[in-house]
Specification:
Blueprint lengths: L1 H9 L11 H9 L1 H12 L5 H12 L4 H8 L5 H23 L3 E2 L5 E5 L10 H8 L5 E5 L4 E5 L6 E4 L12 H13 L7 H7 L12
Parallel strand pairs: 2-3
Antiparallel strand pairs: 1-2, 3-4, 4-5
């Protein structure tokens, strides 16, 4: 759980690199871009630990920042190319989650969203949704794939915990959700329906979490 909390901190606006271990802090100081790519590759949960280590060592082996940046973007290296391709996929899913999560209030007024991302996107969403909901609205995001949930109340720093999935149930019908469904039904043009294009922008695996689909 400490690694998850650290990941949330890394994506926060006021992140302090001094909380990192010595090698991670050195990577951060040499190349923020390389550090970001490394963290995103870790969040992918793909079996690329060996490539990540080679990438990190190559950047850390640089004597100064300019050399480190060259090492971080050496597309002639298969390891480096894989790390950046993986980081892009994770970043893309994080961006997608910010737009696709749908929140509904439970009986206590906490707005809850569920998802099951391919990659571990949850830590990267903390700051964004804390800012979006502000101090007035308590919220929680449930990662059904990893049995984790993130929650915040009163604008406090978001926390991540295990479980809580079965207990978090939405209450009565959300009028805004019903209005959202009605809006999509109203503007829908059957003659322009293109399921292939729809899947390209919103993969089918996300549909069960979208009330308008």
């Amino acid at each position: 759980m400490e690694d998850i909390d650290l990941a949330c901190d890394i994506f926060s606006e006021g992140f302090n690199s001094r909380v990192l271990c010595e090698s991670a802090q050195r990577l951060f100081e040499l190349s923020i871009n390389a550090f970001d790519a490394f963290v995103l590759a870790w969040l992918s949960e793909l079996p690329i630990e060996s490539e990540m280590l080679k990438f990190g060592r190559r950047v850390l082996g640089a004597a100064e920042r300019q050399e480190a940046e060259r090492a971080a973007y050496d597309r002639g290296s298969d390891d480096t190319r894989l790390i950046h391709e993986t980081a892009w996929k994770v970043q893309h899913e994080i961006h997608r989650m910010k737009g696709l999560l749908r929140f509904s209030p439970d009986d206590n007024g906490t707005y809850i969203a569920r998802f099951a991302s391919d990659h571990f996107a949850l830590p990267a969403l903390a700051d964004y949704f804390t800012s979006r909901f502000g101090k007035e609205t308590p919220w929680a995001i449930i990662d059904e794939k990893r049995c984790l949930f993130m929650y915040s109340q009163g604008g406090a720093k978001a926390k991540v915990a295990f479980g809580g999935i079965r207990d978090a149930k939405t209450g009565k019908k959300d009028s805004w959700e019903e209005l959202w469904k009605h809006y999509h039904k109203t503007i829908n043009n059957e003659s322009r329906y293109n399921p292939d294009l729809q899947r390209q922008f919103i993969p089918e695996r996300y549909w069960k979490y979208l009330p308008e689909m």
